[in-house]
Amino acid sequence: MTLRPTYRRVAFAALASAAVFALTACEKPGPGVSVFSGTSTEHNQALCWSFSGETLEPDQCAQDVVEGALAGRGVSSIPIIPGSTVGISVDPTVADAGWVPVIGSQRLVETPITSTYFRFAFPDLQEVPPSGVSLQIVAGSGEITRGIWVFRLIPNPGVG
C-alpha cells in the first residue's frame, strides 16, 4: 500500500519534468510574410526576428543560414510571369517595425514601408537569370534590423 503513493509521486514528478522540458524547447514563432503572383503564393516565418525590438546581431541570426537562403538553399521559390505584378503581404508586427523589399542588392523603396502590403512589377526575362533572383524582406528602420525573410523569384513564362 505504501508503494502506490510513492509510485504516483515519482510518476507525477517525471511527468512534470517532461512538461517543463517540452515548454523550454518551444519558441515563439516569428511574424510571417507572404509573397504572391498570379496563382502562386508562399508564406514563411522570419529566418531571424528580434522579439525585443533591438537590432539583430550576427550571432543572433546565424550568418550561414542567411547566406544559404540568399544563395537559394532552403527558401521558397515562386514562379513569376515576367512583367506581372508581385505582391508582398506582411504581418502587422512587421509593418509596425517598417520594412524594405530588396531584390538582389537593390532596394525597391527608399524609405521603410509601414503598411502591410506592397506590390511591384517583375522585370522582363532579359533582366533576370533563369535561376531567378532573391527577394529579401528586411524589417526595421534606420540602423535597426529586426527581421529577415528570403524568397526566390523564378521567371516562368508558362505560369499564371
Description:
The chain has 160 residues and is of the alpha+beta class. It has one domain: Immunoglobulin-like, CATH 2.60.40. It is 23% helix and 33% strand. It contains 3 helices and 10 strands; from the N terminus they run H-E-E-E-H-E-E-H-E-E-E-E-E. The protein has helices spanning 3-25, 63-70, 92-97, and strands spanning 32-37, 40-45, 48-49, 76-80, 85-90, 99-103, 106-107, 117-121, 133-139, 147-155. The strands form 2 sheets. Strands 3, 4, 6, 7, 9 and 10 form a 6-stranded mixed β-sheet that branches. The chain has a 4-stranded antiparallel β-sheet with strand order 2-1-5-8. Strand 1 (32-37) and strand 2 (40-45) form a beta hairpin.
Features:
single chain, 23% helix, 160 residues, Immunoglobulin-like
Describe the main β-sheet briefly.
6 strands, mixed
From the helix content, strand content and strand pairing, which structural class follows?
alpha+beta
The low-confidence runs, each spanning 5 or more residues with pLDDT under 50, are: 5-26
**CATH architectural group:** Sandwich
Q: How large is the count of helical segments? A: 3
Distance between the termini: 72 Å
Estimate the strand proportion.
25-35%
Overall tally of domains = 1
H-E string: HEEEHEEHEEEEE
Can you give the mean pLDDT?
78
CATH fold-level topology: Immunoglobulin-like
- Shape label: globular
Helix content: 10-25%
Backbone CA Rg: 21 Å
Output the CATH class name.
Answer: Mainly Beta
Number of strands: 10
